[in-house]
Amino acid sequence: MSLLEERWRAVLDGMAESVRSSGREAGSVRLVAVSKFHPAADIAELCRLGQRDFGENYIQEARAKQTELAGLDIRWHVIGPVQTNKARDVAGRFFLLHTLDRADLARALLRRMPEGGTQDVLLQINIGEEPQKSGVAPSCAEALCEELLQGGLVSAEGTGLCLRGLMCLPPRCGEGEEARPYFVALRKLRDRLSARTGLALPELSMGMSGDYRQAIEEGSTMIRVGTDIFGPRPVKV
């Protein structure tokens, strides 16, 4: 067993243990392996072992890996900020975009969407209201949802942009238990938005290497894990 496989299986075991201890159903949490800066060969190895979901931060890197690994059954996730001028490289090309945070990005994605195409998206919430991070402030999330819905920019299903839930990246304040209040806040915000908009919003993308157990306990449906699987991230040259 390679070190990569050993790490991946350890995360799967930890995830399954957290799901069981939380009284949740097996299979209710998706593991997104964050492969940013890691080689396509590592992705291919994990894919052969059964890992299907991979998250990338940078569109150019993601598109290159999509081309190189085109023969593999991979669900690609965008987990980094997207500039509007990159919309043509995202719309209809990824399983899920985690980082929709403004109406102009939604408009750009729709303009670039292949005819009859669909792109599932999550609303990124700046849950810690940190000025250096992307995402809409929690207090502005309802207004953005209403703008997206009333403008016909998103829907719950069908073609175009389908809003599936929320994503957050908590402040790095020690991780673990210190991240839990932010996960609770995101879940409660999702519940309020769902009640007010009528959208199901079933997905909560929250939890990474240092805090995915707490995220699962608070309702995460997908965790984004990089370091615990791939090891330290290579330095970008």
Short description:
With 237 residues, the chain is of the alpha/beta class.
Which labels suit this protein?
8 helices, 18% strand, eight-stranded parallel β-sheet, alpha/beta
The number of helical segments is: 8
| H and E string | HEHEHEEHEHEHEHEH
Alpha-carbon distance between the termini? 30 Å
Give the overall shape: globular
Strand content: 15-25%
- Low-pLDDT segments: none
Any overview of this molecule?
The protein has an 8-stranded parallel β-sheet with strand order 7-6-5-4-3-2-1-8. Helix 4 (103-112) links the parallel strand 4 (96-100) and strand 5 (118-125). The protein is globular and about 50 Å long. 41% of the residues are buried. By secondary structure, it is of the alpha/beta class. The longest helix is centred in the first third of the chain and has 19 residues, at 3-21. The model has no long low-confidence stretch (mean pLDDT 95). Helix content is 37%, strand content 18%.
